[in-house]
Amino acid sequence: MVMETSGTMSYSVVSEFEGTLLKSDDPFSYFMLLAFDASGLIRFAILLFLWPVIKLLGVLSFKNAALRLMIFVATAGLREQEIESVARTVLPKFYMDDVSMDTWRVFSSCKKRVVVTRMPRVMVERFAKEYFRADEVIGTELNVNRFGFVTGLIREADIDQSALNRVAEVFVDRMPHLGLGKASLTASTTFLSLCEVYAPVSEKSNHHNQQSELRLNPVVFHDGRLVKRPTPAIALLILIWFPFGIVLSVIRIFWGTVLPWGFKSYAMRILGGQIIVKGKPPQPREAGKSGVLFVCNHRSLVDPLLLSTVLKRSVPAIVYSLSRLAKIFCPISIVRIQRIRDVDAKTIKLELSKGDLVVCPEGTTCRTPFLVRFSALFAELTDTIVPVAVNCRAGFFHPNTVRGWNALDIVFFFMNPRPCYEITFLNQLPKEATCSSGKSPHDVANHVQRIMADTLGFECTNFTRKDKYRILTGGDGTVSYLSFQEQAKKFFNTFNPFSR
């Protein structure tokens, strides 16, 4: 009866998303993520304050009413494109952290795969198709008014019956072979009644022990401000901390700007931050010699700043773009380049003739344990190259986003209760590892990327800056930066839940 095609069974499978493909069966935290990243702090707080009501409705077996309430508060007044943007850029990382690998092995071993979710389809579809390789995603559908705004209501009168009918429409000719769902479900009242075999999560491995050859693609790029999935407890901590974090961030930025370099690291420790230094930093250049080019991977906006803090001297940094606010409070010299190869090469050579310089050849930040492909330009310009592997840890807020107001990146980083940076100075590249020995710039860049990845325990990728923005914006890889006035408007709208 079992037919195999390229290691994949010819069976069809229909699986629940929450509580089955995901370990958690409570979608509340995902609606909290949507509320924060699509709208802002006020909607986030409103949804959190309604959590006791939502929980009570669930306990009283009014789960559909609880779901409708979450959907309404999290989505009313938003554009559907904004919800889709959060689903594409923010949610996948948190979904991936919550995946049940046992269920995934069963699900991925089947040829035709259908995912059923009680959440709005737009919140799940992108992830399920790209990472689970689902053929169909069945979920609730949001109502959108004639002006393009989501009303917060859903089209389904009976959510379970609607899911059952739509699964039946997908499998017109033959019943799905395998249904995956929570063991507590009554199969006769859900789409599982259509399946030949119903495999509760706790028993599914007995029905299907075939190991799939498919592997989950990792989430390399993701966006959004929140580091942790906002369960009710974590969301409450974030909400309580927010005003204190703003004050602390202002204090940290102020003292980091005005104090001499020799005192900055002490001030950071006193104010709760931590800088861990490994390796031996090189001494400043001798008179008449070209400066050292510090080549760093790029984790956040403050990489060059904290490198200068560790070196206890100002080292100019090469940047592609920087917000006006960040530039005002930046105590190091900023050297802008234009992404025009010949012009940028002349600029960097000129700066190296004056002294040391910091460059991040990834060209963009990456939060996950991966390295974006290094631009080879730095390898063509000097043989005095010192790789510096950097990593940062943030408790509540990510310091860099694509969708958010980039002028606030440095503010959010220093809002974390205990921001931590680890800076590892590697040995200067020997002459035989540079272009002067006949190696190509690409070979040198790839070598530097590999030794950094080995030091950090990261993985190298061939993704570029354009790939990141293509994935996160859904466009052609280009990114347009907002004017100061547009950024200010976007910032104030962030705190208005119905401004979008």
Terminal CA distance reads 54 Å
Content-based structural category: alpha/beta
Count the DSSP helices: 21
Largest sheet: number of strands, sense, barrel closure: 6 strands, mixed
Instruction: Give the overall silhouette.
Output: elongated
Q: Which descriptors apply to this entry?
A:
disordered C terminus, six-stranded mixed β-sheet, Rossmann fold, alpha/beta, disordered N terminus, five-stranded mixed β-sheet
Can you offer a commentary on this structure?
There is one protein chain. The protein has 500 residues and is an alpha/beta fold. The chain folds into 2 domains: 4-207, Rossmann fold (3-Layer(aba) Sandwich); 232-494, no CATH class. The protein has 21 helices and 17 strands. The strands form 5 sheets. Strands 1, 2, 3, 4, 7 and 8 form a 6-stranded mixed beta sheet that branches. The chain has a 5-stranded mixed beta sheet with strand order 9-16-15-10-13, sandwiched between helices. It has a two-stranded antiparallel sheet with strand order 5-6. α2 runs parallel beside α5. It starts with a strand and ends in a 6-residue tail after the last helix. Mean pLDDT is 86; it is low at 1-7, 203-210 and 477-500. One of its GO terms (biological process) is phospholipid biosynthetic process. This is Phospholipid/glycerol acyltransferase domain-containing protein. It is found in: Membrane. The chain crosses the membrane at residues 30-54, 234-255.
In short:
This protein is of the alpha/beta class and 500 residues long. Helix content is 42%, strand content 16%. The protein has 2 domains: 4-207, Rossmann fold; 232-494, no CATH class.
